[in-house]
Amino acid sequence: MTAKEIRQAYLDFFKSKNHEVVPSAPIVVKNDPTLLFTNAGMNQFKDAFLGNAEPKAARVTDTQKCLRVSGKHNDLEEVGHDTYHHTMFEMLGNWSFGDYFKEDAIAWAWELLVDVFKLDSDRIYVTVFEGDESENLSSDDDAKNYWLKWVSEDRILNGNKKDNFWEMGDQGPCGPSSEIHFDLRPQEEREKVDGKSLVNMDHPEVVEIWNLVFMEFNRKADGSLERLPAQHVDTGMGFERLCMIIQGVRSNYDTDVFTPIISQIERLSGKKKTDSEKTLVAMRVIADHIRAIAFAIADGQLPSNNGAGYVIRRILRRATRYAYSVLDLKQPFMHELIAVLASEMGDAFPEIISQQGLVENVIQEEETSFLRTLEQGLKRLDDIIEQTSSTTIDGVKAFELYDTFGFPVDLTSLILRERGLDLDQAGFDAEMTVQKNRSRAATKMSTDDWVEIRKDAREEFIGYDSLQSTVHIAKYREV
Ligand code: ATP
Ligand code: MG
Ligand code: MG
Ligand code: MG
């Protein structure tokens, strides 16, 4: 099955169980001071769970664009290191608002995976919440009993609060969860080591695919839990991981969600992903980051110097740095990946087509200016080298390069090494720690640079100064 077919089959399945198919909410969150970006399918239903709003229907399903780059769920640093955590990913979900509960949620999850998608049931493990005394929460025996209809007891694991009590952030609706994991390892390896021992161990081939959350509580600002007025179901399945399993590959990047983007990066750079491990990692990082950047811009979040815009700017620069230093791409190129995204994802997310021109122009502009900064950084590094008499370059100076010019430290050490010089890494790291603390404080701040783009805006992008008048941007400010 292709990715498109898998997405559609998911939605069709829940439609057949009387769910209304609803669109994804924007990836940027405008009016919630506790959240910069949508980090789970349930975000848009928060008020319905809390009892503050009527849900559109008692049962809904969708695929939600998620971004996990800040706050409680931050996977940015995993990207490039593992093959199943992305910045932007799609979360397939089905919800019940005070309608069905654990029994149906579990039965349908099983039916979909085993009967519809034909996953090998011998490779599936499930987890249930073991309870938590400090919060006065009991173990989820109901969920366990419903699972026992489908799986044997030795495939059911107990999980602690960290893994089996789902929370959106520091506040909001939450509840015990039951997760489904899949063992992708070959038969010989499965015989040697029981897959059960690898669940929740961050094993690259024993991966979590689906989280069924039984929403029963609200975490209040003071940290206490209160019962919600009704019991709800909130599920989230990683679409790219599901595609990996169904398509029989070992990495999300080998599914057709990513291969068209990676092929385009290969064409543009004249390099192959098989050239070296470093090349492969760089291509994965770029393929991942371009999705995050493109969808954030399409939803109105432009790169900027603070709040959510700064997060997007940093993701874009991270991708540019990999391209510059590993793929030798010294000219803007990322905007040339947007057409691929539009043709692969435009069916499910039409905004990527309607905003294509804007997205391309913003990215090209941003890349151009960052590449200029990189060039300036190179010159500054030359000066530093000239002015230094020792063979070790001061970490504080290297940090200044990184901080002011966005000049990557790995590039600094590479250049230094080529010239027989060393970097004072400890000095650099110390400065970095100071800055990390600062930016942690910054992401806690509410955003002040939200923009809403007219739905049909395709005007020519001239630059940031004139952007507001040409694209009719309305500014919102958090209150
Ligand atoms: P993990 O333990 O792998 O980090 P999670 O427990 O943080 O996942 P949930 O919050 O339970 O994830 O989200 C529901 C599902 O979304 C997960 O079961 C997984 O399939 C998928 N998912 C979560 N984070 C990512 C990510 N960064 N990239 C791709 N898919 C993800
Ligand atoms: Mg996680
Ligand atoms: Mg998990
Ligand atoms: Mg989970």
From TrEMBL:
Q: Which UniProt keywords apply?
A: Aminoacyl-tRNA synthetase, ATP-binding, Cytoplasm, Ligase, Metal-binding, Nucleotide-binding, Protein biosynthesis, RNA-binding, tRNA-binding, Zinc
The entry's cellular-component GO terms read: cytoplasm
UniProt-listed GO biological process terms: alanyl-tRNA aminoacylation
GO molecular function terms noted in the UniProt entry:
alanine-tRNA ligase activity; aminoacyl-tRNA deacylase activity; ATP binding; tRNA binding; zinc ion binding
What superkingdom does the record give? Bacteria
Catalytic activity as recorded in UniProt: tRNA(Ala) + L-alanine + ATP = L-alanyl-tRNA(Ala) + AMP + diphosphate
Q: Alanyl-transfer RNA synthetases family profile domain: from which residue to which, for each copy? A: 1-479
Q: Which cofactor does it need?
A: Zn(2+)
Cofactor note (record): Binds 1 zinc ion per subunit.
From the Swiss-Prot or TrEMBL record, state where the protein is found: Cytoplasm
**Per the UniProt record, which EC number(s) apply here?**
6.1.1.7
Indicate the principal place this protein occupies in or around the cell: cytoplasm
- The protein's role, per its UniProt record: Catalyzes the attachment of alanine to tRNA(Ala) in a two-step reaction: alanine is first activated by ATP to form Ala-AMP and then transferred to the acceptor end of tRNA(Ala). Also edits incorrectly charged Ser-tRNA(Ala) and Gly-tRNA(Ala) via its editing domain.
Q: Which family does it belong to?
A: Belongs to the class-II aminoacyl-tRNA synthetase family.
Entry text on domains? Consists of three domains; the N-terminal catalytic domain, the editing domain and the C-terminal C-Ala domain. The editing domain removes incorrectly charged amino acids, while the C-Ala domain, along with tRNA(Ala), serves as a bridge to cooperatively bring together the editing and aminoacylation centers thus stimulating deacylation of misacylated tRNAs.
Which protein is depicted?
Answer: Alanine--tRNA ligase
Native organism: Phaeocystidibacter luteus
The upper taxonomy is: Bacteria, Pseudomonadati, Bacteroidota, Flavobacteriia, Flavobacteriales
